[in-house]
Amino acid sequence: MAAAAELPKPLVLVWGEDDYAVKQRARGLFQEWSVEVGGFDHETIDATAANSGEAVTALGKLREALQTLPFFGGGKVILFQNCNFLGDERTASSQLVTEHLTDLAKELKAFSWNGVRLIISAGKVDKRKTFYKTLEKAGSVEVFAGWSMEDKNWEAEAENTARRHVKALKKEISEAALTKLIQFVGPHPRALAGEIEKLALFIGDRSEIAEEDVSAVVSRNKQSQAFALADALGGRHLGRLLKTLDEELAAMKHGSQKSEIGLLYGLISKVRVMIFLKEMVRQGWIKADADYYRFKTQLERVPADQMPTDRRFNPLAMHPFMLHQGLGHAKNYTLLELVQAMELLLACNEKLISSSLDEALVLQQTLVKIVSRQTQPGVA
Questions:
Q1: Nearest CA among 235, 223, 211, 337 for reference residue 278
Q2: Where in the chain is the domain with CATH 1.20.272.10?
Q3: What is the widest separation between alpha-carbon atoms in the chain?
Q4: CB atoms closer than 10 angstroms to residue 95
Q5: Rounded to an integer, what distance in angstroms lies between the CA atom of residue 332 and that of residue 288?
Q6: Are the C-beta atoms of 105 and 131 separated by less than 8 Å?
Q7: At the fourth CATH level, which superfamily is domain 11-143?
Q8: Cβ contacts of residue 354 below 8 Å, gap of 6+?
Q9: How much helix, strand and coil, in percent to the nearest 5, is found in the chain?
Q10: Residues of the chain with CATH 1.10.8.60
Q11: Is the pLDDT of residue 257 over 80?
């Protein structure tokens, strides 16, 4: 999250891919400074530019604001917000904008900050450019990096952020609801805050957000949607499973890139992972009731040479968050049921490829057999 721990200087650049955090910090600092310095001449300048002409116009407004003394005395705070020409964008690369930024950098170096404070907020920033280096030396820089699925710690940051938002709204959230919320929203801080506000309105006077509340109102991101059918299978909820299957099949009729075979392969992968997790528990490498943080630590101790060399089949190649969810799903089946489920899915695969049967019906029948607990009693 934010990299700055020191008190900010009169000149501050707040930037990063986490646009929600950037805007919150910039606006919060603007309000804080406005109260601190007093006066009534504080300015907010929109620095969003669609072309070089608009960028130059915005820079002109900033220069004017810096040179205009407060009319009523006191201090002056300027927020140059949402600047989108400090990175490698086309507008930022134009010679005209580069020249104006270079001139502004010289002015900022020599500027007397007596009673004046400037906040610049931006998304992408090219740290190699003179303007950034000037801001770094003459002022302070705060960076809010965005979350990424490639970052194995993004879920922890998302959970902490979600808890803060929930607490600010004077609500609570169950652990199951929190896990599902993060799964649905993914690494998107702004969307996460919006969904929490939606949940708070949805539960009304109730104090705690429950898992069913998340299922009822939270929008799924594309990645979550891609795993929806497999999650429903893992949850062993027949009604939800068939409903999700119907939604997937309907999406195919409207141009979805998916196919019945593609859906089937996703289900096979899900069952395979649950079988691996059952075996990892049996071997004592992981605990069936481990929370997410202990689970990640336990995964590091799993012997890599005991796993498949092909990353497509190796559970350790999956994101720990998805594996931990699979661990909870594996409790819904015995090992024998999972083996039988794999056999049913492979038989389904053969029917989809070699027969003229209705693909949707074949999938539905297979899923009903897997979930309806009609398999023989087996080893847990």
A1: 337
A2: 227-371
A3: 84
A4: 8
A5: 12
A6: yes
A7: P-loop containing nucleotide triphosphate hydrolases (3.40.50.300)
A8: none
A9: 60, 10, 35
A10: 154-217
A11: no
Token pair 């299957």 in the structure block, residue? 245
> 45-58: per-residue pLDDT in tens?
999 999 999 999 99
For residues 260 and 359, is the Cβ–Cβ distance under 8 A?
yes
Alpha-carbon radius of gyration of the chain:
27
Q: Whose CA is closest to 256, among 219, 215, 217, 225? A: 225
Q: Say how far apart CA 228 and CA 91 lie, in whole Å.
A: 40
| CB-CB neighbours of 115 under 10 Å | 16
Mean pLDDT of 179-192: 84
CATH architecture of 227-371: Up-down Bundle (1.20)
Burial of 112 (0-12, 13-18, 19+ CB in 10 A): exposed
CB contact at 8 A, 287 and 280: no
Residue 379 CB neighbours (<10 A): 10
Q: Taking the model in full, what pTM does it have?
A: 0.54
- Which residue in the block uniquely carries the two structure tokens 């409207």? 254
**φ/ψ bin of 170: left (φ > 0), alpha (ψ from -120 to 50), beta (otherwise):** left
Copy the structure tokens of residue 5: 């721990």
Task: Tell me the C-alpha distance between 349 and 366, whole Å.
Answer: 10
Fold of the CATH domain 154-217:
Helicase, Ruva Protein; domain 3 (1.10.8)
